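Journal club prep — side note

Before the paper discussion, L.F. wants everyone to see what a predicted structure for a comparable chain looks like in token form. Sequence:
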Amino acid sequence: MAALARFVIAVCVVLGISVPASAEDIFFFRIGTGSTGGTYFPVGGIIASAISKPPGSRECEAGGSCGVPGLIAVAQSTEGSVANILGIADGTLESGFSQADITYWAYKGEGIFKDRGPITGLRTIANLFPESVHIVVRRNAGIHSVADLRGKRVSIDREGSGTRVDALLILKAYGLTLKDIEAVSVASGDAADMLREGTLDAFIMVVGTPGKAVADLAEDSLIDLVPVTGPPAERLMQTYPFFSRDRIRAGTYFNVAETETVSVGAQWLVSARMPESLIYGITRALWHPNTRRLLDSGHPKGKQITLASALDGLVVPLHPGARRYYLEAGLDIPDLPDPPGGSN
């Protein structure tokens, strides 16, 4: 944090922002995001800017920052959801973005977090936007349903990835196991290359639309999307609350029809150790009208970040500061189980 403080103070000097005599007047707040080429990092940058209000900033009413007085938020590039959760747990991050499914496993100490045990010090600020399950299949491969994946060469992503966990749950819901497919374990970019080369029949990917790897294949009319729908999908959503009903609309990908599927939410998590007053102010700044304009103009996913969906699909409790804001805003607060026993 000391290095971060020195860096931000230097930036303030360069930009002509006055720096207070006491460092206690400044609070630095890190938001763990993802790779710089992904969605989390640019969205995190927009939100960090919106909630910040460095000392010396113009007042909101005068066209200045509408963030939390004295707060300097920074979007930090990371390896993604798992790294962000671990960073919150060990105190190297104050907050971070995560897929709802990864959050669920971490909070309960299950799935990829089974060996570590429950991470109970996680709290939620908001659900941000959906990340849709894509079952991408090679066109003319004769795959029209999840059941048709039987006997096919299918990438379910890398060991330890959240996508892989989701892929296995979806296959199980439709009565398939790894023994029923020829499973491949590669990242989505490599899977797309293999499908293009004809060495792969399908791959499963969880991503906010449009996903670049899918869009590139669609531009060459190489793929279709398989729906995740019907009774198996309904049972899946009932069993695992982080899944929600979703639709990939026609036109999202060139020459690919509208496809019913499921999604997991990209959610903004924060350490339970953060003060209630701070998180209340951050939540209020997130939903300020000025932030709305920044989100709408700053990134394609920004328009999907809305107060109306802020509490959709939550799997860990709201931070008390966020809860107070949403109660004042008149939203219905979801009932969530108390934290299981485990680590912070």
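L.F.'s comment for the group: The chain is about 35% helix and 20% strand. Keep this in mind when we get to the figures.
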